[in-house]
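User: Just a sanity check before I run the rest of the batch. Below are the structure tokens for the first item. I only need the designed sequence back.
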């Protein structure tokens, strides 16, 4: 093995790629301060902003976005997620090791959905103040605890150095749908995206193609529909005349589509499905199937 290739592999395994996901916005100094602390410790770190526009204190939104992105990053990546309404309180700072990646942030449920997908994850409470900033603010653990811990990880510090392993992290409600006594499946809306698509907790393991072919019906907020599409504009590919004749009907037509995060989405062509359904997160959705 060449020296340069060996060096590249060591660099990747040391986790120099650090992602940042917060509700800090970009009009204040908060995200920049975290970056400064990381780079002061490890100038070679590669920083990737996932988003700083999570709605303020919205832990569930952060958990979903983290779930949707972590699989896109390579082994060794360090994911810092800070949506922390309990900052300064007794809530624990933690490190999660899962799928050959690291997750650093508060123990408030923000890593719940990753833990749902990665049952073999190891979790450590961050207690070793050697790896914190010298003075820790009660209002900015993102800068004073999570950023320096991420930087230390990126330089190869083993997870066990930060504190003892724990087995009782705070968890949000599980993503797993429930099978009802009558054979129906009950899921919920877990996220509403920028376009108004309602992302549900159903995956293709829950609603199979056989169920869809057998006439599966979805029910949410008093509306029922059975149309499943392969992509958002599927009906829009049949020619201009067909598009024009069906335009009015399509404007209010709801359908289901498998989204890029792996969950079933409820959508409406060129409209917000959430507005049409008056839907909000955690709304119940039923899948009725004849098979």
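Assistant: Here's the designed sequence for the first item:
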């Amino acid at each position: 093995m060449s020296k340069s290739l060996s060096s590249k592999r060591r660099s990747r395994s040391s986790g120099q790629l650090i992602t940042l996901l917060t509700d800090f916005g970009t009009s204040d100094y908060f995200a920049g301060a975290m970056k400064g602390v990381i780079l002061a410790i490890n100038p070679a770190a590669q920083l990737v902003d996932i988003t700083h526009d999570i709605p303020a204190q919205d832990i569930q939104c952060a958990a979903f976005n983290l779930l949707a992105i972590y699989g896109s990053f390579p082994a060794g990546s360090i994911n810092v997620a800070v949506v922390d309404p309990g900052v300064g309180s007794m809530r624990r700072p933690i490190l999660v090791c899962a799928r050959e990646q690291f997750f650093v942030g508060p123990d408030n449920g923000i890593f719940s959905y990753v833990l749902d997908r990665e049952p073999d994850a190891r979790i450590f409470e961050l207690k070793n103040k050697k790896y914190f900033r010298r003075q820790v603010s009660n209002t900015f653990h993102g800068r004073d605890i999570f950023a320096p811990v991420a930087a230390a990880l990126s330089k190869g510090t083993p997870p066990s150095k930060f504190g003892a392993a724990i087995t009782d992290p705070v968890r949000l409600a599980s993503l797993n749908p429930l099978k009802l006594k009558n054979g129906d499946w009950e899921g919920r809306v877990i996220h509403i995206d920028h376009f108004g698509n309602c992302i549900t907790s159903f995956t293709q393991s829950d609603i199979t193609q056989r169920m869809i072919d057998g006439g599966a019906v979805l029910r949410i907020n008093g509306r029922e529909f059975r149309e499943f599409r392969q992509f958002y504009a599927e009906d829009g590919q049949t020619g201009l005349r067909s598009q024009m004749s069906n335009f009015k009907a399509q404007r209010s037509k709801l359908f289901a589509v498998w989204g890029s995060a792996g969950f079933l989405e409820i959508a409406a062509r060129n409209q917000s499905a959430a507005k049409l359904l008056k839907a909000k997160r955690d709304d119940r959705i039923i899948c009725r199937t004849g098979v």
